[in-house]
Amino acid sequence: MSIAGAEFVRPVPVDPQALALCAVGVHKSFRERESGEHQWRRVDAVSGIDLAVPRGEILGILGPNGSGKSTLIRILATLLVPDRGSVEVFGYDIGRHRLLVRRLINRVSVEASFFKKLTAEENLAYATGLYGVPNRQAQAMAREILERLGMPAKKLRVPLEQLSRGQQQKVAIARALLTSPTLMLLDEPTTGLDPKSRREVQQFILDVRQRHDATIVICTHDMDEAERLCDRVAIINRGRFEAVGPPQELKARHGATMEAVFFTLIGESTAEER
Ligand SMILES: Nc1ncnc2c1ncn2[C@@H]1O[C@H](COP(=O)(O)OP(=O)(O)O)[C@@H](O)[C@H]1O
Ligand SMILES: [Mg+2]
Predict the structure, then answer these.
(1) pLDDT tens digits, one per residue of 230-239
(2) Which of 65, 99, 72, 67 is closest to 87 using CA atoms?
(3) What secondary structure does DSSP assign to the chain, as a single string?
(4) What does the pLDDT average to over 245-265?
(5) What is the whole-number distance in angstroms between the Cα of residue 119 and the centre of ligand 1?
(6) Which of 15, 76, 64 is nearest to 217 (CA)?
(7) Of 39, 44, 165, 225, which is least packed with CB atoms within 10 Å of its CB?
(8) Ligand 1: which atom is nearest the Cα of residue 187?
(9) Do the beta carbons of residue 158 and residue 115 sit within 8 Å?
């Protein structure tokens, strides 16, 4: 193996005291074409987000469609460069240490991207190849993680397209566990799942947090999910956090249920009506 390759395999050294995530003053705007016109206008997708997530926390992000959740997640995942502001993952600046940070984070989006004709095992092996974990070790780890988290072993050897969406989400989350410590960025992992699969994926996320050294940021539209899973919830509207706190605290302050909290803070209008 080349020296560069060997360098890549070594685990990323992380200060145990470091925050899993620290974002300060993050802004991102896009140019959007006015409908049917040759005019462009700027849309402030994320406008001034500050966020500190300690290691081991599950932080929920709740907000209407178009409020900036996915943009924020994509910035944190180093897939988009913010216009302004800074982000550190386990103490590493995402701009200056992009490749290193990519080994500490994993993003799972609504449509997990896989090679659907390949099996879960093969997909996990491919992903770990990218992350520099030697293949045989990775295969064993993948199998162990999925079995421990309740995926039947025989399911690992059929093409992914033959698994239910809930099972595919579990494989995606397991894939995110192959690097450690890890900051998992879950963008609506349960949207579109039936209630049973949703419950299973939620339980999976809780198990993952308990058994692995994982910190989780999860976007969701599901109020019960936010309350059940999250230590703290951030309510986002028009690219800004309206409030951040434990569900109990938000309810004590803004409404009897999470849904009431949501409507108190967001109002009835949605960002998409801008
Ligand atoms: N690549 C892009 N180009 C132009 N506008 C974008 C792009 N991505 C997101 N936006 C706009 O940014 C805003 C926030 O979008 P997004 O982060 O996807 O919201 P959410 O995930 O909360 O639904 C929306 O107004 C959306 O249209
Ligand atoms: Mg989104």
Answers:
(1) 999 999 999 9
(2) 72
(3) --HHHHHHHSPPP--TTS-SEEEEEEEEEEEEEPTTSS-EEEEEEEEEEEEEE-TT-EEEEE--TTSSHHHHHHHHTTSS--SEEEEEETTEETTTTHHHHHTTEEEE-SS----TTSBHHHHHHHHHHHHT--HHHHHHHHHHHHHHTT--GGGGGSBGGGS-HHHHHHHHHHHHTTSSSEEEEEESTTTT--HHHHHHHHHHHHHHHHHS-EEEEEEES-HHHHHHH-SEEEEEETTEEEEEE-HHHHHHHH-SSHHHHHHHHH-S--GGG-
(4) 97
(5) 32
(6) 76
(7) 39
(8) 21
(9) no
**Going from the N-terminus, what domains does the chain have, and what CATH number goes with each?**
3-273 (3.40.50.300)
**CB within 6 Å of ligand 1 — which residues?**
30, 32, 43, 45, 63, 65-71
State both tokens at 108.
Answer: 């799972």
Whole-angstrom Cα distance, residue 166 to residue 158? 15
Chain segment 127-176, per-residue pLDDT in tens? 776 666 677 777 777 777 777 767 787 888 889 889 888 888 888 877 77
Instruction: Name the residue of 28, 43, 73 whose CB sits within 8 Å of the most ligand 1 atoms, as the mutation to test its pocket.
Output: 43
Q: What is the dihedral of CA 42, 184, 57, 23, to 10 degrees?
A: -30
Maximal CA-CA distance, the chain: 59
User: Of ligand 1's atoms, which has the minimum distance to the CA of residue 72?
Assistant: 17
Residues 45 and 80: their CA atoms lie apart, in Å, by: 12
Ligand lying nearest the CA atom of residue 186: 2
